[in-house]
Amino acid sequence: MKIKKVLVSQPKPASEKSPYYDIAQKYGVKIDFRPFIKVESLSAKEFRQQKVSILDHTAVIFTSRHAIDHFFHLCTELRVSIPETMKYFCVTEAVALYIQKYIQYRKRKIFFGNTGKFEDLLPSIIKHKTEKYLVPMSDVHTDEIKNLLEKSKIQHTETVMYRTVSNDFTAEEEFDYDMLVFFSPAGVTSLKKNFPDFQQKEIKIGTFGSTTAQAVRDAGLRLDLEAPSVQAPSMTAALDMFIKENNKGK
After folding, report:
1. Using omega within 30 degrees of 0 as the cis cutoff, is the peptide bond preceding 136 cis?
2. CATH number reported for the structural domain that contains residue 146 in this entry
3. Under DSSP, is residue 234 helix (H, G, I), strand (E, B) or coil?
4. Where is the Tetrapyrrole biosynthesis uroporphyrinogen III synthase domain (predicted)?
């Protein structure tokens, strides 16, 4: 079956120069962007049940923009005023710069890593070993950060501030795609929730990341494209190659 219509379970690219648009034009394929999942804040009531006091901490570790959004959202809802002395430690400079959305960047002590890996941020945290760290997290997370902080004897509190939920489809939304592309296990779960009677048949499924690929297999579905690979380090590179091969001579 020729691939004519693809659903990418990501928000629409902000730039018109996205490689997805190049693929659409090159192969005459329609690519829609529709997240299967969305992130929402815990309510103030739900947060209070964790018995965590934000102001008992002197530094915050941010692993993503989501963490920043939901931290400041909850602070507003809880009427917690963050002191200017609060220090912020971010996994990348891009995440650090995002804090400007909520506070004056130049007036604060902000530190960041260069690679996006938490291990790269750790030396900065260890240099400020006397701080009491707060780590805002999603309801779905690994113990990587916890283990590294404990190993370095860093005083910290992990707290869930946001959760990933299914972004439900409406009855009016057409679901007539030749290919679905997923980036997280939660997206695969959302597919099964939205369409309990989903029959894959000839529909192709592509994934980015090993955990997402495994989620497709665990759901009893056929995985047709797995990225990244040596030949295709990005999802767009993999998709380009896949559509070119699949639509050849059809």
Report:
1. no
2. 3.40.50.10090
3. coil
4. 25-236
